[in-house]
Amino acid sequence: MSAAAVRTDAGGMPAGGAPLVRLRALAKTYHSGEVEVRAVRGVTLDIEVGGFVAVMGASGSGKSTLMNLLGCLDRPSGGEYLLDGANVAELGRKQLARLRNRKLGFVFQSFNLLARTSALENVELPMLYSATPIPTRERRRRAGAALARVGLSQRSGHYPSQLSGGQQQRVAIARALVNQPEILLADEPTGNLDTRTSIEIMGLFQELNRTGLTIIMVTHELDIAAYCKRIVVMRDGQVIGDNRNDSPRSAEAELATLGRAEQQAQLA
Amino acid sequence: MNLLTAFKLTLMRSRQTLFISLRALRRNKMRSSLTALGIIIGVASVVALVAVGNGAKVQIQGQVAALGQNLLTIFAGSSRTGGVSSGLGSASTITLADAAAIAREVSDVAAVSPEDTSTAQAIANGRNWSTTVAGESPQYLSIRDWKLASGSMFTEREVRGADKVAVIGSKTALELFGPLDPVGQMVRIKNIPFVIIGLLTSKGASFGMDQDDRILIPYTTAMKRVTGDRYLRSVSIEVSAADRMSGAEDQIKSLLRQRHDLQPGQDDDFNIFNQKDIAQTAGQITTIVTYLLGAIASISLLVGGIGIMNIMLVSVTERTREVGIRIAVGAQASAIQLQFLIEAMMLSVLGGLIGVLIGVGAAHLVGVFANFQAIVSVGSIVLAFGVSLAIGIFFGIYPARKAAALDPIDALRYE
């Protein structure tokens, strides 16, 4: 892996179309007192529609800051970020909120569901903030459909405390999907889950990606990154590796193997 | 058309925020109800205490009115023996001639009753009761605006004859005769037998004195046979019209000073009580008491408001992550601010509504248990409710702004 690899677009740009995400020398510098923290220093990256990218790196490598920038939760202090053609640096707070609402879906390591709120109501949340209000019945219908898509139709009335970690993450994914975003941003989505559940979540991501959804995921586990189609590696705020993964692991196959192993263990 | 759609959109969005706030309140039922409790108690006490104050005012006004219309009462001055004051009416200064002179010479006097009142033991029907024996003139009933339940009042002729006739108050009658009709019966006062010729209607208590516990007899009889007084204790006077009260008072004052040979600079040896003054003073006192009660209750309302701010501030901190999630999924800062503001307002408005209900209920309970009619005023309800709404807005704005200003990244990381 060399720095030169950054410039060769590992995912490949679709002919004639602009990439969905276009980063040019993107930088973010924090000032905490006298100290200047250059969390992201010049990242240049293109991510096309339908991409499934893992961003890897040790803690402090700037991958979380990059995610916050990609998620429009933070504004870059230098460089350029074009999301679907729009220059994010030029947008105001209101427009960023609208962008998050319509084009981005977030999945977090700690699920971040509202407590004492049913799965269905959690999934409804982004629709409560859409620019054009959505009638209650339509909201319910869409939330129900999103829950069905992650396989949780039966649990729509449950509170987060009544759900397993994997189920909670599925609710969070349904919430991220409900406004039909362009990009799903996942920050260590399997960080709090056991191996089997992690593979299940990755399987769900692969399934969603097959339907055309662009996914960008931060992880520090190579095992998990192996399910993605492209792996970007960061260190000290810079991209030091960007490789296409031509043979991603198949969560479906893994689960089948795992199932057989479990069966054998039971028989023995 | 464009304007209409914009309006509809705003309306729908407000409804949505209202809905979000309602959900948030419902999620924290315990905290919500405890917060509202402050406002509930505040509003309830304002409504109830002002109702009690108003009730007291009306009752006292009623009692003053029960004394009689346009009533002036002259008391003899207090007698002083070696620095010991024996109270009003104890001095021997007002004579029957004074009373006659007032009736004769003061133009606006409608009726006069010379009074010689004492406390005595009344015995009748084998029973024994200590009561007020009031020597009065026949005009006393009109002066006090009092009616007879049965029988008749004694006449001028009976006064001239110092006859042993009595008109009995309803309370005294009940104590001596029970349910029997006392008219025509005998009652012994200081061992002197009196024939009861009339029964007074009930007037109730006034300023702690039961007006129905008394026996009226002619003032001549009282002076000659009961007390042996040669002077009057007091004189009750009815003035022809309310606006003549002070004029009549002044005339009586100068007349009596002249008759008593008082020099300028010398103190009066009598006192004149003006029923209107009493009514006014009583009215002022009860108004002050009402304001005082209202002020005390308002303090609890204010404390309730601060409670709301306190809880909302805690709530913003406690729900930092929730705010972060909402911002992440695309909530505008304005929507977050509105949500917290509406939550505070709903707490105070709901608290205010419940408080009004409890306040009205408490006022009624006071009426039931204290035998006293508390009067709930619409003004106090509107005021208390309005103040609680204002408190919700005022104490809700700061926490709401704080929530809206949160940084989403920090908020999402908040533990």
Commentary on this structure:
The complex is a heterodimer of chains A (268) and B (415). Chain A is of the alpha/beta class and 268 residues long. In chain A, 36% of the residues lie in helices and 24% in strands. Chain A contains nine helices and ten strands. Chain A is globular and about 60 Å long. Chain A starts with a helix and ends with a helix. With 415 residues, chain B is α+β, with helices and mostly antiparallel strands. In chain B, 57% of the residues lie in helices and 19% in strands. Chain B is built from 13 helices and 14 strands. Chain B has helices at 2-27, 29-66, 96-105, 140-143, 156-160, 170-177, 219-227, 245-259, 275-318, 320-328, 333-369, 378-404, 408-413, and strands at residues 71-76, 80-81, 84-85, 109-124, 127-136, 148-151, 165-168, 186-189, 192-200, 205-206, 209-210, 214-218, 234-239, 270-274. In chain B, strands 4-5-12-7-9-8 form a six-stranded mixed barrel. Chain B is elongated, with a radius of gyration of 34 Å. The model of chain B has no long low-confidence stretch (mean pLDDT 86).
